[in-house]
TrEMBL record:
Protein name: Uracil-DNA glycosylase
Protein's organism: Mesoflavibacter profundi
Enzyme Commission no: 3.2.2.27
Source organism phylogeny: Bacteria, Pseudomonadati, Bacteroidota, Flavobacteriia, Flavobacteriales
Record flagged with keyword Ribosomal protein: no
Keyword tags: Cytoplasm, DNA damage, DNA repair, Glycosidase, Hydrolase
Length: 221
């Protein structure tokens, strides 16, 4: 498994890479990618870390699993490659942005443009077997990504954490709420959004207001 990350992360993550669980995880992922179709492509597993350097990170969005259909996952949570149909959760994210910050619905579901502005798009599990949701859970990824959230909490200040849905909300315990901003809401999936737990959360305008108050550039959602 090629750990391709922006150099700003390396001093803080090297300890994790050296731990036995991560070595076991690496072997598991190598074997899975050798025997099965897995996503995202191997060179994009750590894309979130490559596209959003730690020293530029301002916002964190936490997802659960990569998309498990062809050509969708690109290593950023909720994001799909250019030209790929937008999955239901992403459609609802874009609809909320449309009404919240008056931005037109975008053609591309590729969220690299957010990552390049300092939005860290982290899935709790970074790989998945094709068409088998959750197939790489409980192999060590969650240990690693929990450590990543703690590192961000410790090393940064005034980061906006967007925790959508029950799974992401559980990560609040890893974050120092005295020095960071935590916004929670229902998940953007249709099941949650259609029950009234997503639309109207105004997380995108709220995030920009917090960033502005702290002297940071706002995000062009």
């Amino acid at each position: 498994m090629n750990v391709d990350i922006n150099p700003s992360w390396k001093p803080f993550l090297q300890d994790e890479f050296d731990k036995p669980y991560f070595k076991n995880l690496t072997e598991f992922v190598k074997e899975e990618y050798a025997k099965h179709q897995c996503f995202p492509p191997g060179n994009l597993i750590f894309n979130a870390f490559e596209k959003c350097p730690l020293d530029q990170l301002k916002v964190v969005i936490i997802g659960q699993d990569p998309y498990h259909n062809y050509d969708q996952a690109n290593g950023l949570c909720f994001s799909v490659n250019d030209g790929i149909a937008h999955p239901p959760s992403l459609i609802n994210i874009f609809k909320e942005i449309e009404t919240d910050v008056n931005t037109p619905y975008p053609k591309s579901g590729n969220l690299e443009r957010w990552a390049e502005q300092g939005v860290f798009l982290l899935n709790a599990t970074l790989t998945v077997r094709a068409h088998e949701a959750g197939s790489h859970q409980k192999q060590g990824w969650e240990t690693f990504t929990d450590a990543v959230i703690k590192i961000i909490s410790e090393q940064k200040e005034s980061v906006v954490f967007l925790l959508w849905g029950g799974f992401a909300k559980k990560k609040a315990k890893l974050i120092d709420a005295k020095k960071h901003h935590i916004l929670t809401s229902g998940h953007p999936s249709p099941l949650s959004a259609n029950r009234g737990y997503w639309f109207g959360n105004k997380h995108f305008s709220k995030t920009n207001a917090i960033l502005k108050d702290n002297g940071f550039e706002v995000i062009d959602w």
